[in-house]
Amino acid sequence: MEMNRRQFLYGATAASIPVLTGCDNDDEPIVSIDRSYPVSPFGATSTAEEVTAGLDLTGKTALVTGCNSGLGFETMRVLAMRGAHVIGTGRNLEKASKACSSVSGKTTPVALELSSFQSIIDCADTVNKLGKPIDMLVCNAGINTFGELDLVNGVERIFAVNHLGHFVLVNRLLPMLKDSKESRIVHVSSKSAYVQAPEVGIDFDNLRGEREFDYWTAYGRSKLANALFSLELASRLEGSNISSNALHPGLVQTNIARNAPVMLRKAFDWFGNLIAKTPEQGAATQVYVSTNPELRGVSGAFFEDCNAVTVSGNNYLFDKPMAERLWTTSEEMTKDYLIDWN
């Protein structure tokens, strides 16, 4: 009954907060569990603690971006509670330190500003000096500007932070991921990747703001980029000790709407508790994908509600040619900050 109530309320109010839920339309894609992968007993209301019950992560090292609030904080908290050493990143060391010191377990704060490639390099260098293989890398941090076009290093800000920043970070950390016996890269994408992205998928001729700008579409583009980056990374790492998967955490009560227009913020404040997951529930899928033993060797999948899924209709989640082009384009945009890990 709880899921039926949530689905009803979601449909009734999603039009008020499309940028957070994905635009509501008559051609809503059908999301189905992909039974070619292990099927879990968990679902939309499961929490991060529930999906890790009985797991001992002692001796494992995880890095979680955006650890100071929302899904990142809950992910760090539960991984540390289960015994992992969690490296938590925030936009500055003060934010990261405050978050890390407020959870039980072993944590290390590191500054990471994803809009600054130099900050990403500094972060990776700091992590490398810890001398620990990375067993879990959760690319969780993300933004929506809810504003006019803004460029970072000549690139649209949402795309630069949500995709290019993590693209450089993963590249710089790959040697430490390869040092692990089994390492998992988890990309926090969104339903927006398949309901809110441009009609053409990644509009490669508009990444620098050459044409029209709409922050809803820009956010969808960046989340599609997360999914396609994961897909291509999984292909390039096939046969290695590293897996790569993407996911939609669900509509979650976090502070991502803090910069949204007043009416959008009010709509989420009024109705969010009726249709949204709690952070504890929202973090469940990324924690599950990061840790569950049944997913050993699973790579290139897209998860929702703790299960790999297929998505009907016209979307680009598993578009291999687009993923390859995105990789090449991303390399060109960040070439001065990458290392050769082949």
Secondary-structure map with pairings?
Elements: H1 2-13, H2 18-21, E1 31-33, H3 48-51, E2 61-65, H4 70-81, E3 85-90, H5 93-101, E4 107-111, H6 117-129, E5 136-139, E6 151-152, E7 155-156, H7 157-178, E8 183-188, H8 192-195, H9 215-236, E9 242-248, H10 262-275, H11 279-282, H12 284-291, E10 302-304, E11 307-311, H13 320-334
Helix pairs in contact: 1-10, 6-7, 7-9, 9-13
Structural overview:
The chain is of the alpha/beta class and 342 residues long. The chain has 13 helices and eleven strands. The protein has helices spanning 2-13, 18-21, 48-51, 70-81, 93-101, 117-129, 157-178, 192-195, 215-236, 262-275, 279-282, 284-291, 320-334, and strands spanning 31-33, 61-65, 85-90, 107-111, 136-139, 151-152, 155-156, 183-188, 242-248, 302-304, 307-311. A nine-stranded mixed sheet has the order 1-11-10-9-8-5-2-3-4, with helices on both faces. Strands 6-7 form a two-stranded antiparallel sheet. α6 runs parallel beside α7 (157-178) and α7 packs parallel to α9. It starts with a helix and ends in an 8-residue tail after the last helix. 49% of the residues are buried. Residues 1-25 have low confidence and may be disordered.
For the biggest sheet, the summary is:
9 strands, mixed
The low-confidence parts are: 1-25
- In terms of structural class, how would the helical and strand content be classed? alpha/beta
Specify the number of helices.
13
Radius of gyration: 18 Å
**% residues in beta strands:** 5-15%
Percentage of residues assigned to helices: 40-55%
Kindly state the number of beta strands. 11
Order of helices and strands: HHEHEHEHEHEEEHEHHEHHHEEH
Which strand order do you get reading across the main beta sheet? 1-11-10-9-8-5-2-3-4
Distance between the termini: 51 Å
Globally, the shape reads: globular
Mean pLDDT: 89
